[in-house]
Amino acid sequence: MLDDYLIRIGLAHRPSPSPEGLAELQRAHRMAIGFENFDVLLGRPIALDLAAIWAKLGSARGGYCFEHNALFGAMLDELGLPNRPLLARVWLGLDGPGDLAAAPARTHTLRLVQVGTESWLADAGFGGSYVPPLPLVDGAEATTPDGARHRLVRRAAPDDPLGEWLIERMGPAGATDGRTLGSDGWAAQYSFGLAAVAPIDLELGSWWASSRPDTRFTLACRASIVLPDGFAALNGTRLSVHAAGRSEARDLTRAEDFRAVLADLFRIALSPDEVARLRLF
């Protein structure tokens, strides 16, 4: 599958099993395969076995984090980069870790990757913004081509239920999926711990995100994709694009324009019937 996957994400070579190779693979993945939740809104179950994920993401479709990072993790294994899943609480648009009673569920997954003797975080499936690979080191930082800085902070003891680690972002709000960042400074994206995650934990998180009536994925259409120097997002019929340091937004008012934007910008193919079933127009 690895050779077909590399063709799918537009890489003509196998990246090296190094931090540079990890970053190259993740960025190519995120620029080629859109983040989206259309199957949720179309009433289709989200299957997390690798064959089902590849049948979907290997064609002109995308998916959400549980699909993206399962595929990404399997490809890292084939490249000789051992990895395992982690679960996270998403704080983007919220106040950040604080009151446990108000904490969001662990509905995001990312990968903990072993690169030589170092542990790295990699995430090919965060739809809210582009999070680059980061070494598992308190204070590690990276800057992405959209102009944002990212920082990893060790915020608590390993057994803290809100997560031992926190990924923060500081940068243009237009290069996110539209959720407010709360301030012009560092804003929390998600927190996580390093505890082992069982397959049933991933199934449960995916089921909750795709079936609970008030989650982001059951309330409206969501799509995003990384651009060479920016980020594009779709929330319902609202399209926002950040590129070359500028942010623009507009409303899509016709089904044919919606389909064209999905295909041309987000690399997602939906039929006219599927778009009609979304009841957006």
UniProtKB/TrEMBL annotation:
Any one Gene Ontology molecular-function term assigned to this protein's record: acetyltransferase activity
InterPro entries hit by this protein: Arylamine_N-AcTrfase, Papain-like_cys_pep_sf
Phylogenetic classification of the source organism: Bacteria, Pseudomonadati, Pseudomonadota, Alphaproteobacteria, Sphingomonadales
Protein name: Arylamine N-acetyltransferase
Entry-linked PANTHER family: ARYLAMINE N-ACETYLTRANSFERASE 4-RELATED, N-HYDROXYARYLAMINE O-ACETYLTRANSFERASE
Source species, domain of life: Bacteria
Keywords linked to the UniProt accession: Transferase
Pfam families: Acetyltransf_2 (PF00797)
Family designation: Belongs to the arylamine N-acetyltransferase family.
